[in-house]
Amino acid sequence: MIDTLWLIGIGTGSPAHVTGEGMTALRDASVILVPRKGHGKEDLAGLRQAIIAASGSAARVVEFDYPLRDPALPYAERVARWHDEIARRWQTALAKVAVDGPVALLVWGDPSLYDSTLRIAARLDPPPAVRVVPGITAIHALTAAHAIPLNEINGPVQITTGRRLAEQGWPDGVDTLVVMLDGEGRFAGIDPDGVQIWWGAYLGMPEQVLASGPLAQMSGPILKQRAEARARHGWIMDTYLLRRG
Predict the structure, then answer these.
(1) Element (H, E) at 227
(2) What is the C-alpha to C-alpha distance for residues 88 and 120, in angstroms, rounded to an integer?
(3) Sheet holding 129-133, edge to edge
(4) Cis ω on the peptide bond leading into residue 126 (within 30° of 0)?
(5) How would you classify the pairing of strands 238-244 and 176-180?
(6) What is the DSSP string of 126-143?
(7) Nearest to 62 by CA among 105, 108, 24
(8) Which string of DSSP letters, residue by residue, matches 66-107?
(9) Per-residue pLDDT for the chain (245 aa), expressed as one digit of tens each?
(10) Among candidates 211, 230, 201, 237, which has minimal Cα distance to 146?
């Protein structure tokens, strides 16, 4: 049973993205849950293990196998069942060890920004007391890597997903879009006229790749670079910013 759960943001690949508060939380945790995401993604677990080692934590590390989503189900049901199964696996893994203090989870990016760890935690029975320790977000890592501001002067910014961009197009009244969770490169499907793109993958990692420029010119090269990087590493996490004007 999990009485206290700490969700620690670890940024997007660099151990330096973890804050001092996050490192302290790792040292103070009793157990740290680490997901195994399958063949070809071992470096994701390896990165978490490296961060734990760098913190000097003596916590018990408990690994669990991450489930896959069922592509045959409608999207909302697919995600809901996936979250249910992740929560079940957390509890199953922890039932095998003595838990005498806070349980920590290292969350890629940030626990409160386009991440479902908080929703999964709410499925636990009984629900634990949850503490969130923020880290560097994927958005901050992207804008820093390109040395650009997130917004124009007095300009609004909208954060969205690739799925919503494809289904709903560019939202009215917004000049800057940050797109996350886009597994298909959906920027290629929008009108590129007057649009600039700043794209990055493996942000903060030695494998980091960046590209930027007019979308009309960069869409194809980014899709090619993205496919090559995914084939080389077996996985990819990328984020991009689109700006009109």
Answers:
(1) helix 215-233
(2) 9
(3) 60-65, 31-36, 103-107, 4-9, 129-133
(4) yes
(5) antiparallel
(6) SPPEEEEE----HHHHHH
(7) 105
(8) PPPP-TTS-HHHHHHHHHHHHHHHHHHHHTTS---S-EEEEE
(9) 789 999 999 988 788 889 999 999 999 999 999 998 766 666 677 888 889 999 999 999 999 998 989 989 998 999 999 999 999 999 999 998 988 999 999 998 888 888 899 999 999 988 999 999 998 999 999 999 999 999 999 889 999 999 999 999 999 999 999 999 998 999 999 999 999 999 999 998 889 999 999 999 999 999 999 999 999 988 899 999 999 98
(10) 211
Residue reference for tokens 């636990």? 124
CA distances from 51 to 35, 54, 80 (A): 14, 5, 30
Tokens representing residue 50 in the block: 């490296």
Scan for tokens 């206290």, then name that residue: 4
Compute the chain's Rg from CA coordinates. Answer: 19
CA 212 to chain centre: 21
Closest CA relative to residue 132, chosen from 161, 105, 166, 100? 105
